[in-house]
Amino acid sequence: MSNLLTKTTELAMYIASSYAFxxxxxxxxxxxxxxxxxxxxxxxxxxxxxxxxxxxxxDNTAALLRSEGYGSLLENGTISIICDSHSNMYDHVTGHADxxxxxxxxLPGGDKTITTSVTETMTAIRSSLDLLNKGGLLCITMxxxxxxxxxxxxxxxxxxxxxxxxxxHAAYVNFINQHNAPPEIxxxxxxx
Length: 192
Ligand SMILES: C[S@@+](CC[C@H](N)C(=O)[O-])C[C@H]1O[C@@H](n2cnc3c(N)ncnc32)[C@H](O)[C@@H]1O
What we know:
6 helices; 7-stranded mixed beta sheet; alpha/beta; binds S-adenosylmethionine; 33% helix; Rossmann fold
């Protein structure tokens, strides 16, 4: 394992994965190049939904999963890669989810002008809070170094701080001595 305090995405996935268990239901709300989907697939979920609005991301994720030996889970429907906005997750997700992961921003190696947007993100996060099972985790990696990401962070932090403390428990990881707006992690669990 690499030094988790120097790699935010790995820290987020390490925390998120600890909420996954065999038979769980997972949503990767921003599959991108598929690295998070691949890591989550290893936990033997009964269902894993992966969303992205870019066909390139859907193709990259499917290719990565196939190359790592998870092709049969795509064929038998255990893993569904859906080319749609996470704001429409209600149209695709059946029942509740134990773990929902967002890695906001743009597709690494892709078009940097296509990023997650405040309106879609906030709609999707509200759906996620409803879809989350008791004891489940919503893990959001935020990038405030660009304009849309800064507004996303502001609105997400407000939402998290004002959640009903009887129902949700929210925490926030911020790398306090790093420059240039390093990624931050927002963690929300629905209490048992
Ligand atoms: C930082 S990347 C995700 C990285 C990915 N988790 C990985 O492991 O490679 C963010 C992704 O969010 C996607 N995205 C942007 N808006 C979206 C939306 N409304 N719904 C779903 N995905 C979206 C982008 O296309 C991009 O691929």
